[in-house]
Design goal:
It is a single chain. The chain is an alpha+beta fold. The protein is built from 4 helices and 6 strands, in the order ααβββαβαββ. Strand 1 and strand 2 form a beta hairpin. Helix 3 runs parallel beside helix 4. 11% of the residues are buried.
């Protein structure tokens, strides 16, 4: 067996720990940031207890939604409700035609007031505007659907 020189047998091993510590510190920071920030907080709250004799009033039904479809030639009004048949809401269906490309804001406001008086449960108004409707046509109709002028001259909310 051949002899190897002594300088080949004795060599210094150098282990660089900097990348290892860098990866471990990043991993530690990630784990602390992810799992270490949850805090459990408990509040002591005393709630009133409802007595058996006190009963809540029954709900009258679901909300009636009024749909207002705005088009260049007029407006279409219709109503819908989950607990009513379409036949019971027939008085809500109305078509308003506009003359000379100008919206009839007074007729729209009067129609919406009649619907509100007939169906007091109507609190939701869904407005669907046709594509290409000019802002000059849209804004006055939205104002008419939002409020009305009462007998005393005050503006009141409609929907």
């Amino acid at each position: 067996m051949a002899k190897t020189p002594e300088r080949l047998l004795s060599h210094e091993v150098y282990l660089n720990l900097t990348p290892l510590l860098d990866v471990l510190s990043n991993l530690m920071f990630f784990l602390l940031a992810t799992f270490g920030t949850t805090a459990v907080v408990a509040f002591s709250v005393s709630l009133p207890v409802q007595e058996a004799a006190v009963k809540t009033p029954p709900r009258r039904g679901t909300d009636i939604a009024v749909m207002l479809e705005l088009r260049a030639d007029g407006a279409q009004l219709s109503c819908s409700a989950a607990d009513r048949t379409p036949g019971s809401l027939v008085g809500c269906r109305q078509r308003l035609r506009y003359a000379a490309d100008a919206p009839d804001v007074a007729a729209l406001g009067a129609a919406l007031r009649r619907i509100k008086e007939s169906y007091a449960d109507a609190t939701t108004l869904v407005v669907v505007a046709a594509a290409g409707l000019r802002v000059g046509q849209l804004v006055p109709q939205l104002d008419a659907a939002r409020t009305f002028v009462g007998a005393d001259g005050q503006r009141r909310p409609l929907f």
